[in-house]
Specification:
This protein is mostly beta strands. The protein is 14% helix and 51% strand. The protein is built from 1 helix and 5 strands. It has a 5-stranded mixed β-sheet, with helices on one face. Helix 1 links the parallel strand 4 and strand 5. The longest helix is centred in the last third of the chain and has 10 residues. The radius of gyration is 12 Å and the shape is elongated. The relative contact order is 0.23.
C-alpha cells in the first residue's frame, strides 16, 4: 500500500480489529486488517501477529485516539 487514507479501530469479540485503508501500487483500493488482544486494564492492545513497520506509528495513533496504548511485543 502506497498511501494510507484511513485507519479505523473496531471492537470485535474480546479484542480489536484495526483496518488500514489506502491506495495500492496500481492505484486500486487496498485494505489490510490486523487483530489485537486487549490486555491488562483493558486499555492496552497487543498485536496477534507482526505489525507492518511502515504503519506502526499510524496504528499507535489510531489506538491512542480510541483510548488504547500499543504494547510492543
Amino acid at each position: 500500500m502506497e498511501d494510507v487514507e484511513s485507519i479505523v479501530v473496531h471492537p470485535f469479540g474480546d479484542g480489536l480489529i484495526v483496518e488500514i485503508i489506502g491506495v495500492g501500487e496500481k492505484g486500486d483500493i487496498s485494505i489490510d486488517s490486523l487483530e489485537f488482544d486487549i490486555i491488562e486494564d483493558e486499555r492496552e492492545a497487543s498485536a496477534r501477529g507482526d505489525l507492518p513497520s511502515n504503519y506502526k506509528g499510524d496504528i499507535r495513533t489510531a489506538l491512542s485516539k480510541k483510548g488504547y496504548s500499543l504494547v510492543d511485543t
